[in-house]
Task: inverse folding
């Protein structure tokens, strides 16, 4: 058993589209340092009605990593 969630399609991610992992969980490919740069994250958050974002992680050396 690998770390990739069942049903996750890497081609869809690389095309820039989010994939639902669970009722409140999504996966997206982030091609640049910023999560909003060249992604549809803003559109997804707007569609979901999100009004608060919480970022967690540390800089290793140029991008956040979950800890």
Result:
């Amino acid at each position: 058993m690998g770390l990739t969630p069942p049903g996750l399609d890497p081609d869809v991610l690389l095309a820039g589209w989010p994939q639902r992992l669970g009722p409140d969980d999504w996966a997206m490919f982030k091609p640049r340092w910023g999560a909003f740069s060249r992604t549809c994250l803003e559109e997804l958050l707007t569609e979901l009605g999100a009004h608060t974002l919480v970022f967690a992680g540390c800089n290793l050396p140029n991008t956040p990593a979950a800890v």
The chain has two helices and four strands. The chain has a mean pLDDT of 81. The CA atoms of residues 1 and 7 lie 13 Å apart. Residues 10-65 form one domain.
